[in-house]
């Protein structure tokens, strides 16, 4: 379920046009890392570390994506 939610949020952010100065709009993208308990960690700190590492893999590879520990 977490991957589905992260992808839905990512698509919603990409589709939305944010109002900038002087009536211009700006589009954004989002990158998400997903960790699953207990497979990826048994503590809050482990889960955040794994999700953070996954998110940075997305950011360095392509941006605007979702990754898990394996992907």
Mean pLDDT rating: 94
Shape category:
elongated
Indicate the proportion of strand residues.
5-15%
C-alpha Rg (nearest Å): 14 Å
Strand order of the largest sheet: 1-2
Low-confidence stretches: none
Main pleated sheet: 2 strands, antiparallel
Find the structural class using helix and strand composition.
alpha+beta
N-to-C CA distance: 16 Å
Helix % is 40-55%
Q: Write the H/E string, N to C.
A: HEEEHE
Number of strands: 4
Q: How many helical stretches?
A: 2
In short, what is this structure?
The protein is an alpha+beta fold.
Topology:
Blueprint: H1 2-15, E1 17-19, E2 25-27, E3 32-33, H2 44-61, E4 66-67
Parallel strand pairs: 3-4
Antiparallel strand pairs: 1-2
What does this protein look like?
45% of the residues lie in helices and 14% in strands. The protein contains two helices and four strands; from the N terminus they run αβββαβ. The strands form two sheets. A two-stranded antiparallel ribbon has the order 1-2. Strands 3-4 form a two-stranded parallel sheet. Strand 3 (32-33), helix 2 and strand 4 form a beta-alpha-beta unit. The radius of gyration is 14 Å and the shape is elongated.
Highlighted features:
71 residues; alpha+beta; two-stranded antiparallel sheet; two-stranded parallel sheet; 4 strands; 45% helix
């Amino acid at each position: 379920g977490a991957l589905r939610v992260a992808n839905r949020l990512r698509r919603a952010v990409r589709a939305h046009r944010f109002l900038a100065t002087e009536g211009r709009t700006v589009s954004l993208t989002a990158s998400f890392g997903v960790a699953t308990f207990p497979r990826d960690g048994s503590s809050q700190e482990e889960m955040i570390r794994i999700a953070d590492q996954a998110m940075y893999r997305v950011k360095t590879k392509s941006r605007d994506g979702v990754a898990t520990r394996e992907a």
